[in-house]
Amino acid sequence: MKQEYIGVILPDGIYQVLLKGQNQINVSAYQAAGEHYHLIPFFMRLRSIKPGVDQVQGFVKTEGKYKLKTISIPKVIYTRSFLSKRQIHFLEKRNIQFYNKKGIGHNKLNMHHIISENPELQAFLPKTVKGTIENLRIMMNQHNHLILKPANGSLGGGIMKLSRDNLGTWVLNYPHARREWSQITFKDEIPPYITETFSKKQYIIQERIELATYNERPFDLRVVVQRNHTGNWVLAGILCKVSPSKEQFVTNISQGGRSLSFDSVLKGHPSLSYSKVYDDISQLTLKLAIHLEKYTEHIADIAFDIALNKEGHPYFIESNFRGRYGNMRYKGKRYEEWKAKHFNPIGYGRFLIDRISKQHGAS
Fold this sequence. Notes:
This protein has 363 residues and is α+β, with helices and mostly antiparallel strands.
């Protein structure tokens, strides 16, 4: 098998590590994947691609060290950063294949509408509406537990919980500082805090899923699906994000949550079947990827946040087309999943290179 370059566009932070002459664990994983698939990873950053210039500068591993080199633009490029319109136009004119070209914006309401267009996926969507006071009153009449969250937020910021007790009193939990929460109780009149918040930025109102728990703490899932060396979508890994306490409803690591392996949480769970939950999550996320690719441009890498209720039914919460896979040194199966998240995209690059070669051979 002929060895060829595959371009890998790194985040600036990782690229800076190479500029300092140091190695980096994610880079090492991509390097190992390249060697496995008989490819030479060429590590670039976004600004390396300059419209009108047919050569790029980047790092190649030479004699055990990463050294700067200038080469012609590789004919296949894997990027975790979205290119500018000028860069895209430039590469397309030169028939350069690059994947993760364009995802879908982070607006959660828009994503909800896109997914709900597929009848097979509707059962996996919590009821979700635009954040208006009128919609809030409607949802409060239909549900006892709601989540209010910024339509374009991330990392759990700005999320509020609204719950009704047995006496008909509503309790609003909202953040007033990082990892600190305040509470408002009310009966009928919507608190000014909600009205003011809705007026400042777009929110969504969502039916709150009563999450499955681990040691009495709620958890949800981060599920990564990628294209691999066959060109198909595969499940690359699942991890559990566990809330910092049984009272806390946000599981984000940035909000104090803890990351645990899916195996360790599910295999010892008293009421959930590991194999059934795994199969259900796999089927759901692969269906989601196949559906969402119709609305994207050559996406090969998606991270899904999936809620799991107490009965084990999965619900789509949100997706990220530039998920971060960390640089921690995991052990056991977690390491194998972390490794797969780097091997799959490079394997997909091998698939594209081979397809290009066949097309040229046939012409």
